[in-house]
Amino acid sequence: MSALLELRGITATYGASQALFGVDLTIGEGELVALMGRNGMGKSTTIKVICRLLANQEGSVLFAGQDLTRLPAHRAARLGLGLVPEGRRCFSNLSVWENLYASARPGEWTKDRVYGLFPRLGERADQSAGSLSGGEQQMLAIGRALMTNPRLLILDEATEGLAPVVRQEIWDAIGTLKQSSGLSILVVDKTLSELRQIADHATILERGTSVWHGSIDDLTPELKDKYLGI
Amino acid sequence: MLRETHLNGLLMLALLIVPLAALALNEPFIITLATKVTILALAGVGLNLALGQGGLISFGHAIFFGLGGYSMGILASHAQSFTPLMEVPFLIEGTKLMPVIWIVAIAVSCLAALLVGLLSLRTSGVYFIMVTLAFGQMFYYFAISWPAYGGEDGLVIFVRNEFPGLNTLVPIQFFGLCFAVLCAVLFFVSKLNKSAFGLALSGAHFNAERAETVGIDITRVRLVAFVISAGITGLAGALFADLNRFVSPTMFSWHTSGQIMIFIILGGVARLYGPIAGAAVYIILEHYLGAFSDYWQIYLGLILLFVVLFAQGGLIGGLSKREAAHD
Fold first, then answer.
1. In a domain, A29, yes or no
2. Which residues, including other chains, have CB under 8 Å from residue B95's CB and lie 6 or more apart?
3. ipTM for the assembly
4. Maximum CA pair distance of chain A?
5. Domain count for chain B
6. Which of residues 42-71 of A touch B (CB under 8 A)?
7. Going by DSSP bridges, is the β-strand pair A201-206/A209-215 parallel, antiparallel, or unpaired?
């Protein structure tokens, strides 16, 4: 399996404080990888480096064989990075379909296909995004990322702060996406039980360093206690 | 409560009916006032594209208003004195034809906006306001110190420029022309706002980082919006100069920038018809309160304060009780 995204030895700082001390991460074509770790271990910072919202100090970010390190965020996004950011952040001044239309780039994913995946969005197409429930906004954020027709979908804490029923809906949609579209997916989350069902591999971050990488099935209770326990 | 679209319709109808009624009642000055509202509203529609849709608080739109005015002034003054604008390397003569003047005004404004925008869009927030203001002052002092075109005294154009098929010296005909231009621009901007470009612009206004991660080049989108916005304000400047048959550096002053901004804030930020309501209220106050006191702007200040504090979404938003979506 060829690597779609390859991070090697990434270090990054916010001003004077260093957040990443050496992160390695590989995602293959069609693979679903979970990026795990406790709060403050550098998961979101790693996502920012991938999407070029934060410049890394050292190391390389290769996406589809291309070096992203010198590209601005919008150019990286156009190469096929579809980010669903933490906290959803829809354009809440626009309607649902306007949100989708503003992000659209040609490809398999169209408005109707997104409505097929999330029928609730179709029902609320003309409603303003700001008036949607948290779960619906999350669906819209995923739909908007899909409208860019990405090669890699990145979900940063996609189920955080949502009701259990809605969470399950999101997880089901991610599972469907993986099976039906062959899209590569990077999921940042803390809930191991759901990830076990859909992820292929996992990478664990601890204090800004990637400390473990392997099949999600090899993630033993000991490792879980060591790196993911509270 | 009125729906916003109905309110917009009523507003445009009123703007059309008032001068027609004034014509019937033989009150040409009212027609001139309505023309002034139309032209200033047009300048506001231009700025609103940058300020309302794009969130670019430009305090330098007087640059484009002034450039539009001086495009008219320079071309028409050469035409009225029968001296060419330039002979070497090729001959350029002045003109009294409005369509030509408009194209020049738009082109010059767009070009200036491209340069001003390239530099000022590197900044944001209060720095953007200051940089655009600084550019505005540069143009203002340049106009004052340029004796060839009147310097501080400005330029007087004796006869209004011509438009094929119309007698622009008849107030109602000139009003009709300006009204038609305003309608055409409103149609263009409404289409633009609903296009992928317009959505990207307002998306970037709301959440710039998010817009970047869906592949929107926000600097480019903003620059294009700034340039289009300047073109519209420049066109308004050319019409305003023709209304007064006079151009002066005041058109470049920061008061002018502030005035255009007041139309938008009064009428409703990011509301397509907001500047029309704003300009109308402004001119009515200026005319009727101005007759009582030279300090009429005290009342304008009070009204502005009231609108900002209590009528969210300006006059249009307050009267239609439908706020633009935000959380």
1. yes
2. B75, B76, B79, B101
3. 0.77
4. 49
5. 1
6. 51, 53
7. antiparallel
